[in-house]
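New to this. Explain these tokens.
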Amino acid sequence: MTKPAPGPDQPPIPVRLVTFNTHHGVGEDDRHDLPRLAKLLASVDADVICLQEVDRRFGARSEDVDQALLLSRALDMQLAWGPAIDRGEDDGRRPDDGAHRQYGNALLSRLPILISDVHRLPGGGEPRSALRTMVELDGGALWITATHLTTRSAQERADQVSALADLHTEPMDTGVLVGDFNTEPDAPELDVLRQRFTDAWKLARARDDQAGWKFWQADAGNTHPARSPHRRIDQVWVSSGVAVAGAYVLDAEGASDHLPVVVDLEVRSGV
């Protein structure tokens, strides 16, 4: 039987995506426990996992391991890497000589990664970056940009958001922007983002979170701090061509100081 060609008359393509600030694998018990983190991520059965605060041989806090590589192997997923801090850059050492100490954003994918590039974001203090990828779908493609914005000021976040919006040009308008924004989704500094993207949590046809007995926060989507979340700083934003069947905040089971966000996307076929 001939498979129908991709196009607007075909059903949308489902993609389950997770965004999660891992706190370099250190949980609420102050223990670095990468197997615990891997088990949690595996339980979600996601197509794409976007992680912030990931260490690659960064130091004793994460036992000098390459977290990005170990997680990709444990989950049997492709890896795209976007360093924000690289402690080996200044002395000219090669990334593969064991001397680089890196920290940043990782993307794990069961879908083929076709493009991956890293973009430095403006601002002072701790360096920030965006990891932009394109993954192949069965009948389409999806741009995914993962990031972690500054805590320094609203103005610096606004500058970073403007740079992020510029990464999604017209030929690549079907995409998502995810990560730890360190501000609420209705914050003024995200105005530029709201002009081009829609908050996936608000768009979702089904929602669930970890509000528990706090009925006044039901379906609020709060993710931080994990023990008693009252801020929705971990977010997913979608462009036109991407619908959201469901959005969920999961129990991190003590694996981080944030909670993971899961979204079930529906990507228009043929784009």
User: Anything to note?
Assistant: The longest strand covers residues 13-21. The CA atoms of residues 211 and 218 lie 5 Å apart. The two ends are 23 Å apart (CA to CA). The longest helix spans residues 154-167.
